[in-house]
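> @MW can you paste both from yesterday?
MW: sure, first one:
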Amino acid sequence: MTTPPPRVPPETSTSPQHVSPKAPRSPAPAADGLVSAARRNLRRAAHDLTHPSHPPTPLLANAPRRWQRLLPYVALVALTAIFVPVTINMLTHEYGVDGGLAGLLAVAQTTPLLMLAHRPLQAWWIILPAHVIGALVLLGYPPHSYDVWPWPAPALIGYLFLMLSLSLRETRRTTVSVWGVTVVVGLILHLIDPDRSKGSAVLLPVLSAVVMVIGAAVRERRDTQRRLVEQETISEAERAQRTLLEERARIARELHDVVAHHMSVITVQADSAPYRISGLSEEACEEFGAIAASARESLAEMRRLLAVLRSDGTEGERAPQPGIGRVQQLVEATVRAGLSAELSMTADLPDVPQAVDLSVYRIVQEALANVMRHAPGARVRVSITSDDEHLTVLVVNDRAERPDSPLETTGTGHGLVGMRERVRLTGGTLDTGPLPGGGFRVAARLPLAPTAPDTPPATIPAPTPAPAPTPTSTPTSPSEEP
């Protein structure tokens, strides 16, 4: 009698015990995950519906003109002035609502439209309850065959303007949340009185979705254009900075060639002084040796600097650096290119430092190149004069004879940047700009004595004055072309 009961556990134990308890538990984690995700999404939606994603700024607050900034408010005032009497008239004459109650409903449903320019989400919290109350009030009046319930025509059109404003100002998630609440509210009202609704509750969600998509597309296009403008501004600033650095490196390489010549002369003179000058004392010979050693060390430092500046693999120019003596060749080449160019240069120019000599050539070269690119057919006048302390370079071109056919419509700005850097490093001044009657003017004033720039590079030594050839060329015109 007692033996059968103990045999039951062995029979149940032979069944797969590891399957039976786990089978009902397998869908539990998935269900918990869905519930937690739904709660999280509901919390996000509730947060989006109660917290606007933008500050209460007007819709066109960044417009350049005042009438453009006032345009949204004028449109909303006109829209409200139209909807208030239309809503009152429809509620009283077509639905039979009392005049006072119709006025209250019309004011509650339409006056919040004035907030669409700066607070559309707050306006939605007023308009939607007002429409729901209006729909419930209409249930107390007998229906007509032509009635549209729960959303009369003025309420429907006003709500579409509200959805458009929301899609233009709020995020996509906020707009979708508003649309979802609208669908739920319309479904509830339809279930309250399906016979009176006749499916018209679906009309508002469908039209709202269309308006929402249009507004979202306009908003995303506007945001894309704004980001593109910001990126172009950043790129232009980076391009200008890169151009400045490249031009400084180029100027530093050219200054190296100027300064290295003088340092080499110092080294040779200091090394050969004991052999060229007889009767030097031992102290004087040691002093000349120290001078030569310092000059050689300076040359080595400049060569290391030049190696850094040429780290991109470029090679140095092996031809001698040009100067004022070759400006006439530039003007003659411009004449051969088809431009009418004239050169006026003082015959007895004083000794010019090599850095200034090179800068004058580069400034005239870049100015003439700009005329050929941007003002084809224009007449150019180049003038180089000097006084006791400064050298003045003036390049002026008239209005282009063919203004509709420039070789380049936009420039990189490298030329003007290079001019400014050269003039700044030599301690001079530069004035560039268009002329009132058309044309362009480039005027540079460079010191004849070496002057330290405002913020010179610490590793570039200041150039030393050296005699330069004094050209005595006469004005050159197209008729003098060989």
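MW: second:
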Amino acid sequence: MSAAGESGRAQQMRARAADLEQAAERAMDPQERQRLKGKARELKEQSEHAGGTGKRDTDPM
């Protein structure tokens, strides 16, 4: 996959994670809230590994 494709995929994953976090905030059931938050966290981690911005050191030196 190209770098642009990986970046786009990571961006989509982050957007989906944000959607899941919002759904978790609206969830009335505590178990559903936890499930959604867990899925959002997994997607964020996957997006970091898929070429998205993450906790990488970006110091140019």
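> thanks! The mean pLDDT is 83.
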